[in-house]
Amino acid sequence: MALDRAEAVVRRYFTVEGQSSNADDMDESLGLSLLLLGEALSCMKNKIIAQGSLTIRGWHSEAHEGWGSSIAVTKGMVEKGWCPKSVYVLRNQLQGNTTALHEAYMVRRTKQRHSHESCTDTTCAARTVAGGAKYKQRHRCASGDCSSEGPNVAELVDIIRSGQVPVLELKDDLTITVKAHEPMEDYGTVTHVWSDGFGNPLRNDMPRCQLEFLAEAITESERHLKMRNHGRKLFWIDTLAIPVGAENKPERKTSIGQIHDIFINSKYTIVFDSELCAMKVGNRYVETAINILASGWMQRLWTLQEAYLSKRLFFKFQDTALDLQTLEESFPQAKENSSSILPDAARGYFHSIMGTAREARIHQMTPRDGVSLIASIWKAAYWRTTSKKQHEAVAIATLLGLNSGSSTMASFLNDAFVTGDGEFNMAKYHESMKHLWALIHDVYPGSIPAGVIFLPPPRLSMNGFGWAPVSWLAGKDSDDLKPLFAQNPPTQLDQNGLLVEFPGFLLHCSSAARSQLQLLSEGKSELCFPYGSNLLEWYQVRKLFGDEEKDITLRSDETTDYAIIIPQEQPSTIEDVGLFVEIRRTQLQRSLENSRTTRIFHVSSLFRVLVRRDMGDNIEENKEQFFLDTDLILGELVDRSQKWYLN
Predict the structure, then answer these.
(1) Euclidean distance between CA atoms 541 and 526, whole angstroms
(2) Are strands 561-565 and 576-590 parallel, antiparallel or unpaired?
(3) Ranges of the chain with pLDDT below 50
(4) Residue extents of the structural domains in the chain
(5) Integer Cα distance of 81 and 225 in angstroms
(6) With the C-alpha atoms ordered 132, 134, 140, 141, is the resulting torsion angle positive or negative?
(7) What is the pTM of this model?
(8) 55-93 tens-digit pLDDT
(9) What SS3 class is residue 501?
């Protein structure tokens, strides 16, 4: 209890999450010391409890969760040249763990390649990929002007046009040839971040100095795997293998549909990140894992699907290509030898590439259900970005193998990649997200997580998809994702919308009370209502601020009904998210087995709320006020089997 009180005080005055109005008067260095000490004590408490085999619920805390992100460390990172967006993402990935954040600050020794003076918590201006002639390829040579090499583009296009997959061969003299992949032929793939300068939007070629570095990485990786390729360096990288130019758009579209199978069938994948390539691999698990977690490669959307689909991952450092499997084998020992939470926190890199789901896929063990896979993808993608927003849907579809077919929806998604260099079209972007959700339900029926309805807006404004968030890359608050992982009956998507099963409250209002609902929607007032004739259960509801949504004017007529959908049947005294909805239609459904009639509510999502149960002295006060009020609101609880159609 003393430790909990100390955490509350330290969090309030010395962390970014607390940001007390008096924080400016505090010694930030002292705060950092208190945070590091507090997290160490919390870690020891957890270890003592674990050693004592204490399994009482509520006496454990997550091993990697911290006391909050130190103001001193976050300021220091930005002053050292870190991008504010990267700092924001990293502290959220580390769940407010100052010990791990401080470690990242201390171990990142390389000079930042980009200037981040114009960046913010939400946007990295430095890593925006310029198109066409403005794009700058990166050289490794001192002169920065060595010549470039690439495959014969006509041969590349012919291979793709014939329906085959191209693979590249890097010769000893650093020239490149292209051939159609043959069965049982081993090759490697390369994943990289275009803003690092490894791409080329104008030509299918790369600087010779980069190809020399690539040859070194291929040799190191294949030596580690004991591959026998008879001296041939066969590989695939989008820069060289996806044809550029307006005249090659059909082949470019075909190529994007091949990416899923290309990475699935490759023997290994090499990770190129400019900062990792410039540093030597660490001597400790924590140092290496933290550097990977903090890399730019870890924050891009396309690299997620490339990592997930790969059999073996090699991270290219300055001195070696490090096998992910080798790094992971050192985790148990690092955890056992450590008295801090650092190893668990640093292993966030593994979860950020869907490590558990990835291993299950490699060993052909499917996830427990489709819902857990989609939820894992959402969590891994949540903090990532893409330079071209219109690529979001096709990147996620590629991960799931949804865009490799010839359906109209798959073709629409692949078109977004081909036309992605033009001006951003919001209508087409929304249409692509709609097709993505429809494909997920068609290929993985029932796998759309029911908890998606509780995620932050904005949502699609298309008929049948008003429940769907516009983007998977919201990156706001990790607590928002918790409803995705709840166990719920399978969802159903059809012309009526998304069918989910959740408990909730039907709100019965007198005409005078409807003004309270409008005030709630505006965030000007909280709602308090009882459930049950004995008036012993009371619930408090307030609007959840910070959501991006339009102004809402509720219907004032008495024929319009409202409800609150909640994720759990019995809200606790701790606030939990809920969804305020308008009931558009009630459908009666009769069971053939017992002739029982059930109600299905067809609803429209309006705004998110926070719901908690009132306890103690408040109940008596609420009861007294209840008998004095004329504008009454009563709550009718519906159980977890209640069906809702969200349109």
Answers:
(1) 6
(2) antiparallel
(3) none
(4) 2-107, 132-362, 370-478, 502-646
(5) 37
(6) positive
(7) 0.89
(8) 555 555 555 578 999 999 999 999 999 999 999 999 999
(9) strand
